[in-house]
Amino acid sequence: MEPPTQIFIFGDQKNASDADLRQLLHVNDNSVLRSFFERVNYALRVEIARLPVIQQEWFPRYNTLLELLTARRRGFGDNPALGLALLCINQLGRTIVKDHGDILTARPVHAVGLCTGSFAAAAISTSQTIAELLPAAIEAVLVAFRTGLGSFEARNDIEPRSVVPPIWPVIVGMQEEQAAAILDAFLMQMVFRRVQDLTPSGKPEQSKIAIVGYGGRFPDAESIDKFYWDILHKGLDVHRKIPEDRFDVATHYDPTGRKKNTSKVQYGCFIEKPGLFDARFFNMSPRESANADPGQRLAITTAYEALEMAGFGPDTTPSTQRDRVGIFYGMTSDD
User: Fold this and answer.
1) Which GO biological-process labels does this protein carry (predicted)?
2) Residues 187, 195: contact at Cβ < 8 Å?
3) Per-residue confidence of the chain (335 residues) as pLDDT tens digits?
4) Residue 293, CA atoms < 13 Å, CB-side half-sphere
5) First to last CA, the chain
6) With contact defined as beta carbons under 8 Å apart, do 134 and 35 qualify?
């Protein structure tokens, strides 16, 4: 006699209950369930830590899933990323609790997911054993989290969280041109409000930007640390006759400016050793280095100097996350 078919049905958020998950988190006699909770909690915390700082503020600080449930009840209940992730954790945790070593193998299994329940159903349908289910379950929770985060971002773009959403009227019988004009006006209003939110205060002590490193090449100053500050302090004028290693000024100078490929002046400000570059250090072949634009070589060299001065180690601390750090260039002219 064939074993009966087993059907798992996972509902959407209408059936979600933090109380059910809280009860599940207090189960201590199931090592597989405890392992799942520990691993998925770690994965969620890593996922949140990788978000931009402004998005990290949308989530509470917590160490355990129980702390996350408590924090969600105290002010983060409207976050769909947490809602979807916790729903998926609850559904998969219930499946693990019901397992007695053969729930996925002893009989035919069908998994049905309704709306957001599809995340848990997908993890079940791709696993033949509980051992296979654990990594799939963790990935399903992360996908649910990212899906909720995407909807959260879209909602905040339309209406910031600090603004109480107005009651939207129903518009009927409107011509296409009139509707388009109203929509354009609404979008312009939203853009203007976002720009106002980004307007700087003009007070340095309130700035959220810190300059932590710099590098550069300047006329008669090989770097900022060498002679640059002296030139500024003394107010020196460092313009000079065009060096011979740039081009032959005698054949390319025409005070009238009428000849092609000539200059009306014989003087300028020039950096020293513009071709000096450590190709091996930057993993460039000699041929690639020779064909590279000198400006590119100077750019990556000075960028490295700025990062070295800052002591920058990517993603080692919250303040050194890659999305919080930028390198900005300025150039006056070239020869």
Assistant:
1) fatty acid biosynthetic process; secondary metabolite biosynthetic process
2) no
3) 566 666 777 777 665 667 888 888 888 888 888 888 999 999 999 998 888 888 888 888 888 888 888 887 777 667 888 888 888 888 888 888 876 555 555 556 677 777 778 888 888 887 777 788 888 889 989 998 988 888 887 777 766 555 444 444 444 555 667 767 777 776 676 655 555 555 555 566 666 778 888 888 888 887 777 778 888 888 888 888 888 888 888 888 888 888 888 888 888 888 888 888 899 999 999 899 989 888 889 889 989 988 888 888 887 877 778 878 888 888 776 65
4) 6
5) 88
6) yes
Residue the block writes with tokens 């983060």: 76
Cβ contact 332:270 at 8 Å: no
Encoded tokens for 324:
């919080």
Strand partners, 267: 241
- B/e letters for 131-155, b = 16+ CB within 10 Å, e = fewer, are eebbebbbbbbbbbbebbbeebeee
The string of DSSP codes covering 114-158 is: -GGGHHHHHHHHT-SSHHHHHHHHHHHHHHHHHHHHHHHHHHHHH
Q: What are the contacts of 65-74 at 24+ separation with CB within 8 A?
A: 65/21, 65/25, 65/37, 65/40, 65/41, 65/89, 66/22, 66/25, 68/41, 68/44, 69/18, 69/21, 69/22, 69/25, 72/18, 73/18
SS3 state of residue 48: helix
Confirm if 80 and 151 have CB atoms less than 8 A apart: yes
Residues forming beta bridges with residue 263, ordered by sequence position: 253
Tokens representing 124? Answer: 């079940």
CA distance 47 to 45: 5
